[in-house]
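Supplementary Note 2. Why include the ligand at all?

Several targets in our set were suspected to adopt different conformations when bound, so apo predictions alone were not considered sufficient. For every target with a known small-molecule partner we therefore ran a joint prediction. The input for pyridoxal-5'-phosphate is given below.
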Amino acid sequence: MALKSRPILDMNAFNAASDGCCDPLLDRRLKNCGAASVLYYRRPIEMVRAQGVWMEAADGSQYLDFYNNVSSVGHCHPQVVSAISAQAAQLNTNTRYLDRRVESYLERLKATLPTELSNVVMCCTGSEANDLALRIAIKATGRSGVIVTETAYHGNTLAVMEISPASYKQGEPSEHVHTIPAPSRVAYGNDIEVGFAQAVERAAQTLKRRGHPPAVFICDSIFSSDGVFTNPTKFLAGAVAAARNAGSLYIADEVQPGFARTGDTFWGFERHGVIPDIVTMGKPMGNGFPMAALVTHPELLAIFCRDVGYFNTFAGNALAAAAGMAVLDVIESEGLQQNATRVGAHLLARLGKIVTDDPRVVEVRGAGLFLGIDLCQPDDPGSPNPALAAELINALRDRHVLIGATGCYGQTLKVRPPLCLTTTEADLFVDALSDSLAVT
Ligand SMILES: Cc1ncc(COP(=O)(O)O)c(C=O)c1O
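The joint prediction is reproduced in token form.
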């Protein structure tokens, strides 16, 4: 039977119709949030506190968090918590006053980025940052077309949802959006750079024929919702050149790979040796404090601001600056980028042994502390096995290890622990995965 692609929010999710509801708190959640309630696992967990890579449930049990890149420097990191509480006790208002703490933060953030991207617009969510990036690119190019990967997710506003095929439950992309397969070997064979670049070229021609020449080629630099595609490094270069040849700008969505997660570089696009026209970022930026940003060339922002102003009440106020600065401090002082490289390599090596031993585990790939583990049918490495992924995720949950799924069908285990992970904690995960595979 042909597999159907699965919307990202349905993966690894509680489903009231099939999972049933026998918990009073769950019942309250469903009554309060209705159809928009999205919860992890067949048996959702009530979490009450967390520290480092560990989360504690209401019954006192501890869960190893291998799924969370919001609390990227570790849950409730004391330095981030104290920076936020000190600032909240001193000044917390809108963004229309001068504030030297904010400027210091923006300068510190810019120091991590290519020098030509010297203007920052602060936002509160990744969706907001991508929405604004689209608006800037459309204005600057005078065009409307967008090239995205088939299972991309870029957020939840009206415009950004349209370029997030992973969130469609039905229907096709609008006329101005053209999707291309994610940069996998399955789609493009061994020369991913050339195949992916040609796909961008063809997409640009199709959009032109439809009367929507491309304004934007946008991709998540680690393709997290497409299934995690990281290697070979530099494979994005051809696609970016093809997009620019067709008159398009290139937006790097760093919401997932940014802030040192990939280990070898601070930003995901750096692994590919490309410089984006616009970079967007979010999730780990405030370690749980809701903040995001867009960084771009002053000229592009000036074109956009000629016709329409941009103001954001909360984004980039002193509180956000305090949280963001503490996150950058912790990444540096605790060597978290280096830790992601070291512990990520250990994890990859140990998971490689599982690939050798179990015919249902077909490939492990990734960079730093963001890995994807592909599952297939036991007798057919080419057939994705989303059912096994769902069983394993719930089996691991019962062993108190939290992970998620990704990929077009939900056939890839998504492994994304906080950056402070130790090798001992990495081993706990690998052992729990081996034990779960043995009984699944
Ligand atoms: C790659 C990517 N871009 C953008 C977003 C949207 O960010 P937010 O949920 O903060 O709006 C997400 C969220 O999952 C994401 O994964």
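The chain is about 40% helix and 20% strand. The pocket of pyridoxal-5'-phosphate is lined by residues 125-127, 130, 153-156, 220, 224, 253, 255-256, 282-283, 292 (CB under 6 Å). Comparable summaries for the other entries are listed in the accompanying table.
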